[in-house]
Write a structure and sequence with these properties.
Layout: H1 4-7, E1 11-12, E2 35-38, E3 41-44, E4 56-59, E5 62-65, E6 71-78, E7 84-88, E8 104-113, E9 116-122, E10 130-131, E11 146-148, E12 152-155, E13 159-160, E14 168-169, E15 172-179, E16 186-189, E17 201-207, E18 216-220, H2 226-232, E19 243-251, E20 257-262, E21 269-277, E22 283-287, E23 297-307, E24 313-319, E25 328-336, E26 339-348, E27 351-352, E28 367-374, E29 383-392, E30 398-407, E31 415-422, E32 425-426, E33 431-441
Parallel strand pairs: 15-16
Antiparallel strand pairs: 1-10, 2-5, 3-4, 6-7, 6-8, 8-9, 11-12, 12-15, 13-14, 17-18, 17-19, 19-20, 21-33, 22-31, 23-28, 23-33, 24-27, 24-31, 25-26, 25-30, 28-29, 29-30, 31-32
Length: 442
């Protein structure tokens, strides 16, 4: 049986791996007179198909001639064939964003005066998922604020616009330690992952429905919320199954909420994981697996990290699913006390950031810096990383360390373990406090 979701394919799908600045923008440089130039984008393939490539159609860069020299014009794309056309304001299908024809999606309102363009108004946001009015979907919630207590996540009241509508609201409080229910001050976890696990990351998903005046939301560790959709019967309750990832949270060792953050799936820089350490911890393992494979590189930003003991070095290990203990090459430079020292390691068991130096844990001492990783999702290239950090050395002097390293194994890297070591061995409970964030960069 053909479902409504299969029948209604008139939408612009801004997939996570597409750059928002290429999505149907006005090309002023290429325009002249009544010739309106635009950059292309991607829309659904109205003919349908089973493969991912069959579901979308790429619309190339191009131009159209505006029909009105003095007045209002509309530039639209036809979902049935991907053709871009221009009409004047007398056309019956000129309702902004989603017009009366289910196959048309208006892109721009263009005002002209004296045969030239005087102003251009974009009729949809490049950060939205735009569907026909028959199948609304949440857009990225710019106005949503996320907060938390030990066992609950709160979404501050905020209007979440839907394509072709003025918006619905999604708000309230959901418990992480109770199974999902409709409403606020009730459970939000899918039953397959209840009870919530310690030291784990979960996504926060929102959902909107065709006839609903309010949205719903819940928690799932899966990339596309498969457990939540299966568990909650969103479709049967009238919301459909078009859920949008709006945030994430991480639990601590007691399975309480440790940190929470918003996720913009279309942004050029997205927070993928967060650790906020306040009690002694042996290591921090940041994972990129299960979020997206569309980032060009990753950054790990660590701030105010305090070692629990003296005379330690910061180190990194990585691997496909768990940290490996072999095949690391690295080059580290540290500057301290007016001296610059270069140290290296080959076929090592880890990558050391300070090389021959160590840092102290005197009162007020900490380290902050950035680690950049390249090609972590490639199975044919080595994962390379570089770093730059400041620290307080063992001789109570300010220090800076920078360098580069790699793991000589052509395999996908999914986890990055950061810890302190002393005399070549990992320090148990070596991280006293600090914050670590993993970013995906397009």
């Amino acid at each position: 049986m053909t479902t409504k979701s299969q029948e209604l394919a008139s939408f612009i799908n801004l997939k996570d791996d597409l750059e928002a600045d290429l999505m149907f923008t006005y090309n002023e440089e290429g325009s002249s007179g009544l010739t309106f130039a635009y950059t292309g984008g991607r829309i659904s393939n109205k003919e349908g198909g089973s493969g991912e490539d069959d579901k979308t159609r790429t619309v190339s860069d191009g131009s159209v001639v505006l029909p009105t020299a003095d007045g209002t014009n509309f530039v639209y794309v036809d979902a049935s064939d991907g053709a871009v056309s221009a009409v004047d304001s007398s056309d019956e299908n000129t309702t902004p964003s989603m017009n009366n024809s289910r196959n048309r999606i208006n892109l721009f309102e263009v005002a002209t005066s004296g045969g030239v363009v005087s102003s251009v108004t974009r009729l949809f946001s490049p950060l939205t998922y735009v569907y026909s009015r028959y199948r609304p979907r949440l857009v990225y919630p710019e106005g949503v604020n996320l907060s938390f207590s030990s066992n609950a996540i709160e979404l501050d009241p905020a209007a979440i616009p839907l394509s072709g509508t003025s918006g619905v609201e999604i708000f309230g409080t959901k418990q992480i330690d109770a199974v999902w229910e409709v409403g606020s001050n009730v459970g939000g976890m899918n039953s397959a992952e209840h009870p919530v696990s310690a030291n784990s990351r979960y996504f926060i998903f929102g959902v909107a429905g065709e006839e609903k005046t309010a949205g719903e939301w819940g928690f799932d560790s899966q990339l596309f919320g498969a457990n939540l959709v299966a568990d909650t019967n969103f479709e049967g309750l009238g919301w459909g199954t078009d859920i949008t990832k709006i945030g994430a949270f991480r639990t601590d060792a007691s399975a309480n909420v440790q940190s929470v953050w918003k996720i913009d799936p279309s942004g050029a820089r997205a927070i993928l994981d967060v650790f906020d350490i306040s009690t002694n911890t042996t290591s921090v393992t940041l994972t990129a697996a299960g979020i997206t494979e569309t980032f060009d590189r990753y950054e790990i930003v660590f701030q105010d990290v305090v070692p629990s003991t003296d005379a330690v070095d910061l180190r990194v290990r990585m691997g496909p699913a768990s940290p490996a203990s072999a095949a690391y090459d690295w080059e580290a430079v540290y500057v301290s006390g007016g001296t610059t020292t270069d140290t290296s390691g080959t076929s090592d068991t880890r990558i050391r950031f300070l090389g021959a130096d160590t840092m102290g844990n005197d009162a007020g001492a900490s380290t902050s810096g950035t680690i950049t990783l390249s090609a972590p999702t490639s199975s044919s290239l080595f994962t390379n990383l570089s770093w730059d950090l400041n620290y307080y050395d063992i001789n109570t002097r300010a220090g800076r360390a920078y360098g580069s390293g790699l793991r000589a194994a052509a395999e996908t890297t999914g986890v990055f373990e950061i810890s302190f070591e002393k005399a070549g061995a990992q320090v148990a409970n070596g991280i006293a406090s600090g914050k670590f964030k993993l970013y995906g960069i397009r």
